[in-house]
Model the fold of this input.
Amino acid sequence: MTESPYTRPDMKAFLDALAAVGGPALADMTLEEARQSYVALHAMADRPARDLAVIRDLTCPGPAGDIPLRLYDARESRDPGPLITFYHGGGFVIGDLETHHNLCTEIAALMDLPLIAVDYRRAPEHPFPAAIEDCEAATRWVASSPAELDRKATGIISMGDSAGGNATIVVGQVLGASPADVPIVLQVPIFPLASNAIGSDSLETFAEGHVLTKAAIEFFDAAYQADRTDPRGFPILGDHSNAPPTVVATASLDPIRDSGRDYAKALVEAGRDVVYLEMQGVTHSFTNIRAAVPSTQSDLERIIGAMTLMLGRV
Done:
């Protein structure tokens, strides 16, 4: 008999609670219901937002109109330094600034750096590559140190979870080929979709009962309509030879775990500077369930520690 994979006790309690609640699967909801359920999950499961000196909404020009952004900073003013651009998860379909607000306050506080969250266009209203085009445009804008930010960028730390982890890698490749005003000095894809997850071992092993399901992944895939031959859809296909320093984080119980492993392996084989962390006994979205699953706060802090190490700021 195959032994069940290790699940942390607090993670198991949360999964049992979700199973007890029941309700329709994501793929059976309307688009608006799916988006509301994602907001509700994070509001219920994540730790409260931090109080920061600066939390301010702003916009930047994009290829199809202004892109909403949100600036987070623990300090009112800053000397020149790196700025974090954050791309939220949600399959390019259901996330927004609110679903990741609490997490963004935490990252800005723990890193003691400004963070700019990007509210890119979502599918199915705006399929591939709209989200990527917005993330690229916003990152170039931040790199130019516009007056509206009141902060001078010396480099960009690109960061995101799930679909946002995909965007993190893609933006790194695009800006590697066509540089912005300042370079990406570190990229941090968290449980990213880098290679096609369909058919992977982890997708079949964790298809049900682990927060993200196989059916939800297929739902997102059908809505986003990424070109399977385009590195902007599946960045494992891109050039890794000049990838910036990278921290890759995956979750051992995640259906897209193998996709993140594939990307870390590609970086190692390309001789790039990479720290790879796989969080044991937790699921996809572990960064956004830190109240419901308290041990995951330490996982986020491990990612922050690796970022600090890679930036040489220890």
